[in-house]
Structure formats: structure tokens, C-alpha cells
TrEMBL record:
Single GO term (MF): catalytic activity
Name the UniProt record assigns to this protein: AB hydrolase-1 domain-containing protein
Source species, domain of life: Eukaryota
Organism: Miscanthus lutarioriparius
Domain AB hydrolase-1, first and last residues per copy: 66-303
One Pfam match: Abhydrolase_6
Length: 322
């Protein structure tokens, strides 16, 4: 069997993670299931053993813990490969696979909402961060989870929060338009669909789109067929944009990051989300990037995140002094 695109991606990502001192781990949880919380935690209608796979340095944290939560794209390691090196110099970086992704447990039934994903991470925090207060960064779908985690845990356990390209104010109309294209857009079945996903996600043209169809098609089959039906149900389980979800300000310091050419959640959404999240919010627009600025302009993304997180560690009086 040849060395394909997926194997190359995995090699590059693992090299970045191992080079940053991170290693793969698994934590097992015995959690209650409930239809009220979208399948994980918070109820007493059943019990389920789940496993959360994650990357982190070995041993107890010697630096402040930082949780990086991936979006719907393939491979958490690929999405965060350009962040783990710079961020691990200042933080104990933890990169989990959410339920239904990577080597973590499948979704179960019903599929977990973003709040249930957050509940699973909250249950895992004693093992992931040794009980310390943890900062969180989430991109796209991971931003939904990051918001839910910060809201549920409160500022004593989680904060500050970085939310990147996550439309926390999407409406039912947005959902209907998105769901009409979601499965084929986010989980393409062929080379044409993969190119469309890349064009929607990035502002700059990506070299992978120049590869022959049969090479891209092979990668698509490997990347997007795993747990495909479960992930479609996972999309339907998102409560953002429904009557079940109400966006309220967070007491934690919040950094919103948005690519100015995002075609999935356009830039105007960023200003509306900022207005609703309260006074503790800073908005940073990353020019000439699309839906994944952490991948398209990692140097700028990393600087903005590090400046924000390090400033948030300072006493409030020092932070706001001019």
C-alpha cells in the first residue's frame, strides 16, 4: 500500500505534536445519559462508558492548562498542528478528540449536542488538567463547545475563552440553508466535493486542490467515511440556533477571532456575536483568511491568542492600565 495523502497528513501532524512534547492518551469516563442533554451527562436514564482520546504532555501540568477544541474538519491534530509548538512554550496544551471524532467514543444515541460535548469534557477535566483552571480555544463547531464549556463550568474552572469563526447567533433559517449542504459540504464523498470544501474553508488557494482526482478521492474516502452517519446526526443535534439555546454574556474574558473572508460564517456574524457576549469581549479580524485562520495564517493567529491569554493571566488592574 502506497504512502497516500492521509498518511502524509498524519505524519506531519504527529511530528508537530510529538515535537511540542505532546503524547497520545485516553481517559475513560462512566457517565449518565439523558435525552435532556443530548445523549451525555446530566440525567439518570442510563449509564454509558465513554473514552476520550487526547494529546497532552506526560505527567502533571507544570504550566497553565490550555484546551484546544477542534471543528468538524478531519483530524484534530491536523487542525491544530501549527499551534501546539508555539502555545506549548507557555501552556500545558491538551488537544482532545470530541465524541464521534478520531479515536474517542462514538456518539451514541441520541447524538450529543454541543452542550453534551462540553459536559463530557467537563467530566474529564480532572484527568485532563489535574483540576486546575483551564483556558479554552475552540474553532467553528469547537467554538460552540468552548462557549458551552465556559458557560457551564464558570470562571473558577474555565477561562479565558477564545472562540474562532463560530456563529453563536445562527438562526433556524441559517440552519435550514446550512443543512441543505452540510453533509456534502463538510463530509464530501468525492474529489469535486473536497475541492468545494477547501474553497469554502480557505481564502487562499491550497496546493492540495492541484492533485489529481483519484488522489483526492482516495483521501476523501479515508477521511470522511468514518462515522459519517453519526456525524450527520451530530450536526442535527446542535442546539445553537434553536429555542433550546440562549446566548448570554460570559463572565470570563473572551477573544473572538474571525477570518475576514469566511464563507461558512460570514464576517458580519462576528460583530453580532460580539455585541451579545458582553463587555469582556475582544474581536480580532484576521485579514486574507477564511473559515480556518489558525491554519491559513498561523503566525498571526498564534500571536493574537498568546497576547490575549498571557494578558488575561495578569491582575485586572495591570491588564486595563494604559
Amino acid at each position: 500500500m502506497g504512502f497516500g495523502v492521509l498518511q502524509l497528513m498524519d505524519f506531519i501532524a504527529r511530528r508537530a505534536f510529538l515535537g511540542a512534547g505532546l503524547q497520545p492518551h485516553t481517559i475513560s469516563l462512566h457517565t449518565a445519559t439523558s435525552t435532556d442533554t443530548g445523549g451525555v451527562g446530566g440525567g439518570a436514564s442510563g449509564q454509558r462508558n465513554i473514552h476520550i482520546h487526547y494529546w497532552a504532555p506526560p505527567g502533571e501540568p507544570r504550566l497553565p492548562p490550555l484546551l484546544l477544541i477542534h471543528g468538524f474538519g478531519p483530524m484534530a491534530t491536523w487542525q491544530w498542528r501549527r499551534q501546539v509548538g508555539p502555545l506549548s512554550r507557555h501552556f500545558h496544551v491538551v488537544v482532545p478528540d470530541l465524541l464521534c471524532f478520531g479515536a474517542s467514543s462514538s456518539c451514541g444515541s441520541p447524538a450529543p449536542s454541543e452542550s453534551a460535548q462540553a459536559a463530557a469534557l467537563l467530566d474529564a477535566l480532572p484527568g485532563l488538567a489535574a483540576g486546575a483552571r483551564v483556558a479554552v480555544v475552540g474553532t467553528s463547531y469547537g467554538g460552540f463547545v468552548a462557549y458551552a464549556l465556559a458557560r457551564a463550568a464558570g470562571p473558577d474552572r474555565v477561562g479565558p475563552a477564545v472562540i474562532s469563526n463560530s456563529d453563536l447567533l445562527k438562526t433556524a433559517d441559517d440552519d435550514r440553508a446550512l443543512l441543505q449542504r452540510t453533509a456534502d459540504l463538510l463530509m464530501p464523498l468525492d474529489a469535486r466535493g473536497a475541492r468545494r470544501l477547501i474553497e469554502m474553508s480557505f481564502y487562499r488557494r491550497q496546493a492540495i486542490t492541484l492533485l489529481p482526482d483519484f488522489v483526492i478521492g482516495q483521501a476523501v474516502q479515508q477521511l470522511f467515511t468514518d462515522k459519517r452517519e453519526e456525524k450527520i446526526e451530530l450536526m442535527k443535534a446542535i442546539t445553537v440556533g434553536t429555542d433550546e439555546f440562549q446566548l448570554i454574556p460570559l463572565p470570563q474574558d473572551v477573544l473572538l477571532i474571525w477570518g475576514d473572508h469566511d464563507q461558512i460564517f460570514p464576517l458580519e456574524k462576528a460583530f453580532a456575536v460580539k455585541r451579545c457576549l458582553g463587555e469582556n469581549v475582544t474581536l480580532e479580524i484576521v485579514e486574507k483568511t477564511g473559515h480556518v485562520p489558525q491554519m491559513e495564517d498561523p503566525d498571526r493567529f498564534n500571536k493574537v491568542v498568546l497576547d490575549f491569554l498571557l494578558a488575561s493571566q495578569k491582575p485586572s488592574s495591570t491588564r486595563h492600565a494604559r
